[in-house]
């Protein structure tokens, strides 16, 4: 089966040619308080529903965008969306930086979004959800770029502020009720095979209890299963800084070797 990379003249071009004009949408109820995992989950769900002509096969998130692969009737098509920055005032989700086709554009100050055509998502609210998730991930990536934050910097900060106090303390901290609630929800989502949702709940729990080793370990494994290898490596390294002599340490390091080769 032939694979096309960055092709915008078949699947999405066909959609665009069938549109007379863009659909303008004024968002009234946007998802608020998203974390990165929840935003990525919305992106995945949105892409699954983008068209009946092809089926979403895979989504891999990059530091500056995502790569989506669709299984069509005759070819497998891969598109890459890159975040475009305009001081946080605009969003632009194009499938390729040199192409005219786009999923959604928006002017936050003007309070409206446009999508390429109605065939993208039949429900305007789906456009708003995608735009909100895209805007969150764009802002998150821009913040990391502005801070010049690398994975090594983040891990060094984690070692100093979280791992060192945790390892030196004879009495380990107790998990709060709120963190426990997210832990229970993460485990329940995993049992239902809702892996994206489980990742999101683990992220919420770790925001409250960043010293929780099992949370980092489990979230890393789930991220690895979802193909988000860079984030999986980051989480597993945090686990190892917390419990370097733990019984899962050998397995954790071996997982890192595999994921690093996949990135």
SSE layout and pairing:
Blueprint: E1 3-5, H1 11-17, E2 23-25, H2 36-48, E3 55-62, E4 65-71, E5 76-82, E6 90-94, E7 102-107, E8 112-115, H3 124-147, H4 151-168, H5 177-191, H6 195-208, H7 213-225, H8 229-242, H9 249-262
Parallel strand pairs: 1-5
Antiparallel strand pairs: 2-8, 3-4, 4-5, 6-7, 7-8
Helix pairs in contact: 2-3, 2-6, 4-8, 5-6, 6-7, 7-8, 8-9
Put the structure in a nutshell:
By secondary structure, the chain is α+β, with helices and mostly antiparallel strands.
What structural class should be given to the helix and strand makeup?
alpha+beta
What order do the helices and strands follow? EHEHEEEEEEHHHHHHH
Please, how many helices? 9
> What percentage of residues falls in helices of 4 or more residues?
40-55%
Total number of domains: 2
Query: C-alpha Rg, in Å?
Result: 20 Å
Structure commentary:
The protein is of the alpha+beta class and 263 residues long. The protein has two domains: 3-145, no CATH class; 150-262, Serine Threonine Protein Phosphatase 5, Tetratricopeptide repeat, CATH 1.25.40. The chain has helices at residues 11-17, 36-48, 124-147, 151-168, 177-191, 195-208, 213-225, 229-242, 249-262; strands at residues 3-5, 23-25, 55-62, 65-71, 76-82, 90-94, 102-107, 112-115. The strands form two sheets. Strands 1-5-4-3 form a four-stranded mixed β-sheet, covered by helices on one side. Strand 3 and strand 4 form a beta hairpin. It is globular, with a radius of gyration of 20 Å.
């Amino acid at each position: 089966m032939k694979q096309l990379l960055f092709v915008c003249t078949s699947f999405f071009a066909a959609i665009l040619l069938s549109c007379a004009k863009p659909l303008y949408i004024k968002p009234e109820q946007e998802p608020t308080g998203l974390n990165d995992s929840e935003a990525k989950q919305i992106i995945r769900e949105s892409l699954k529903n983008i068209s009946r002509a092809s089926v979403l096969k895979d989504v891999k998130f990059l530091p500056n965008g995502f790569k989506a692969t669709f299984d069509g009737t005759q070819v497998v098509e891969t598109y890459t969306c890159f975040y475009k920055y305009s001081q946080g005032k605009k969003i632009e989700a194009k499938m390729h930086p040199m192409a005219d086709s786009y999923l959604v554009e928006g002017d936050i100050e003007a309070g409206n979004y446009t999508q390429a055509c109605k065939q993208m998502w039949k429900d305007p609210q789906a456009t708003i959800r995608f735009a909100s998730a895209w805007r969150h991930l764009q802002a998150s990536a821009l913040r990391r770029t502005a801070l010049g934050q690398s994975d090594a910097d983040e891990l060094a900060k984690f070692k100093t502020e979280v791992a060192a106090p945790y390892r030196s303390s004879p009495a380990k901290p107790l998990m709060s009720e709120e963190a426990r609630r997210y832990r229970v929800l993460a485990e329940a989502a995993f049992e239902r095979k809702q892996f994206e949702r489980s990742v999101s709940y683990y992220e919420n729990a770790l925001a409250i209890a960043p010293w929780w080793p099992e949370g980092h370990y489990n979230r890393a494994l789930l991220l690895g299963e979802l193909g988000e290898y860079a984030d999986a490596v980051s989480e597993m390294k945090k686990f190892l800084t917390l419990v370097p002599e733990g019984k899962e340490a050998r397995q954790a390091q071996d997982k890192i070797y595999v994921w690093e080769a996949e990135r």
